[in-house]
Amino acid sequence: MSLNHLLGRSSWRRPPRRSGSSVYLPLAAGTLCLIFICGIATAATLDAKSMQSSDERVRKAREECEDGVDAADAGRWEEAEFRWLKAVAIDPNSACALNNLAVRHEREGEFDEAGEAYRRALESAEGDMRSVALTNWDNFLGGQLADRELEDATKAGEFSGEIPPIGLTVTTYEITVSVPLAEGRYLADFERVLVGNFIISANDTGMDLNDLAVRYFRRRIVQRTFYQTVDLLEEPFNPQDRDPIHNADMWVARAAAVEADVIFTGRVGVTTSDESRLVTERIKTPSGEVTEVARFREMTGYHLSMDFYLLNGEDGSILIDVTGLEGEREFAADEGVSAGDAVVETLEELLPQVVDAVTPARREQTRLLVY
């Protein structure tokens, strides 16, 4: 049985071909044109959505910047940091968030992180935002770099020294940060000080002057600075070591033994003198009147000399050296002041200079946060 019979003798026939042309060409061309037009429309739509998405990210990042500044203004700096980090996560090129994060790092003494954040801010900042970032960067470099380092940064193009004026296209909020001066910056990261031992250059008091000096400076450094202190009184200098101060290997080993970042040591000498001389004193008479009287008294004078050094615990190199410090105090023999107390009182004369030297020099500066 034929196929036509099975299909009910269908009368369907293929249409005849026309030589030299095809009825399908206009239809195909139209279809391709439609696809092309749709493709353009789709690409335009995607591009518009991409632009809209990019604008949305910038807007959201800016809102986080604003919220962060509000938090900082209220003293909630941890929240402020969270907001600015979130802004960078939304828009990695958010110059306002990077600038504000840099200020936050400076405020916390995290100067390496601050420098990196400022550099990233300057890479993406434009217009007035760039002026703000440059202003902060200029002050940051001035506080962090010594003159030679600042000169090198200028030659490398990291700093031009020319800051364009800030207009009205950004809103700023001033805060104050405390930054170490260039000459004190090396001490900013240290936390633990090994005190002593000291070389005794002179001593006619009959006391253990090294022990007294080490204990005195341990106590005073802790009281007057942010450092922790340790000592190695049980390990005196090797008597065969002619120059312990410059024995870098010894100091590195001692610092490692007590996990110290920096070492405070030097030379200390005390000499005394006795004399009987006329002194003037103020006394109160039985009638209540205050008057001055003169009399001879036996006086003991204490003269203290000191050179001290701050050494880097990692390599024993000298960070700071202050030489030629001198202090003098005088005590009446009949006052019963012990030699130890007299030396301590004389050391007090030198303490301000010592504390100034071992504490990183700092100054207050203004930084600009950006809304």
Overall description:
By secondary structure, the chain is an alpha/beta fold. The protein has 2 domains: 60-170, Tetratricopeptide repeat domain (Serine Threonine Protein Phosphatase 5, Tetratricopeptide repeat, Alpha Horseshoe); 187-358, Rossmann fold (3-Layer(aba) Sandwich), CATH 3.40.50. The chain is 45% helix and 26% strand. The protein contains 10 helices and 7 strands. It has helices at 3-6, 25-73, 77-90, 95-107, 111-124, 127-144, 147-155, 209-224, 248-258, 339-358, and strands at residues 172-180, 192-203, 228-231, 262-284, 290-312, 318-332, 362-370. Strands 3-2-4-5-6 form a 5-stranded mixed sheet. The protein has a two-stranded antiparallel sheet with strand order 1-7. α8 (209-224) packs across α10. Mean pLDDT is 81; it is low at 1-29.
- Sheet with the most strands, sense and barrel status: 5 strands, mixed
Give the helix level as a range of percent.
40-55%
Low-confidence stretches: 1-29
Q: How many helices?
A: 10
User: What value does the Rg take, in angstroms?
Assistant: 39 Å
Number of strands: 7
Instruction: State the shape.
Output: elongated
CATH class of the largest domain: Alpha Beta
Q: For the record, give the distance between the C-alpha atoms at the N and C termini, rounded to a whole number.
A: 89 Å
Mean pLDDT: 81
Major sheet strand order: 3-2-4-5-6
From the 3D coordinates, which CATH architecture of the largest domain would you assign? 3-Layer(aba) Sandwich
Q: Indicate the CATH topology of the largest domain.
A: Rossmann fold
The arrangement of helices and strands along the chain is HHHHHHHEEHEHEEEHE
How many domains? The number is 2
Proportion of strand residues: 25-35%
Structural class: alpha/beta
